[in-house]
Specification:
Blueprint lengths: L1 H14 L6 E5 L8 H14 L8 H12 L11 H13 L5 H9 L8 H5 L7 H12 L4 E5 L4 H14 L7 E3 L14 E6 L2 H9 L3 E4 L6 H14 L1
Parallel strand pairs: 1-2, 1-4, 2-3, 4-5
Length: 234
């Protein structure tokens, strides 16, 4: 309901000609990048190869706890849907099952300090279409990237991934955990974030921007939904 009210307010604001340019900020993981599938594949590989000598002590310790868990809710292989549910519950601070708790504790272990993982993630379905549609709607110069990093290796890898897979230049790329810091930097401009995580959408809106929930994540359907919502604002 709150998001609907925000959209209606901004639509009225734009029609009255009181706002100038619109800048669109695209999230990466779950929007342009199929992060969920890449993460599920990585966790399943670890479960099959727990004795990999390249693993750090911390990673081995977390993996052992995941391997040793014998609760009735344990499910293998780990799926994108499972990880999405874990992330949603984590963001909403909801109670998790035992298996979900173990997955939450381990889920970023395979991708931490792992440049190769991040730079080789596949494009999400509809990635190119989403970027091009945003170019068409607001102008190429008004389309940015706004993505949250895990660590310094992921920052470099994300920028390299964007260089290889999109036409968006480095000067229009923001890699930060505090996405809510962006709208205040563009005074008098309508800032729109397209993101699959409600947590970031809510914080962005609280900072004066507009959030579009990209769902289902990493899908052509999600792209269609996000484009339609963006069109409603223009």
């Amino acid at each position: 309901m709150k998001s609907k009210v925000l959209l209606e307010s901004w639509r009225k604001f734009l029609k009255e000609g009181k706002s100038g340019e619109i800048k669109v900020f695209l999230d990466m993981d779950g929007v342009l990048v199929d992060f969920g599938q890449g993460l599920a594949d990585a966790i399943n590989r670890d479960l099959k190869n727990p004795d990999d000598l390249s693993f750090s002590k911390g990673r081995k310790k977390k993996l052992k706890k995941l391997m040793d868990y014998e609760g009735p809710d344990r499910q293998e292989p780990v799926t994108v849907e499972m990880l999405d549910q874990v992330l949603a519950k984590k963001d909403a601070k909801q109670e998790m099952t035992g298996w979900e708790t173990q997955l939450k504790r381990y889920q970023f272990a395979p991708v931490s300090a792992n440049y190769d993982h991040w730079v080789n993630l596949p494009k999400a379905d509809g990635c190119d279409k989403l970027i091009q549609e945003c170019f068409n709607l607001v102008g190429e110069e008004n389309v940015y990237i706004l993505s949250a990093p895990v660590d310094e290796q992921s920052v470099k890898a994300k920028k390299d991934w964007l260089s290889m897979n999109t036409p968006i230049p480095d000067e229009r790329i923001f890699i930060t955990k505090t996405k809510e810091d962006i709208p205040p930097q563009f005074d008098g401009v309508t800032c729109v974030l397209i993101d699959d995580r409600i947590k970031y959408k809510t914080k962005f809106e609280a900072a004066g921007g507009i959030g579009i929930h990209h769902a289902p994540a990493a899908s052509s359907e999600g792209v269609t939904n996000s484009i339609n919502k963006l069109k409603e604002l223009i």
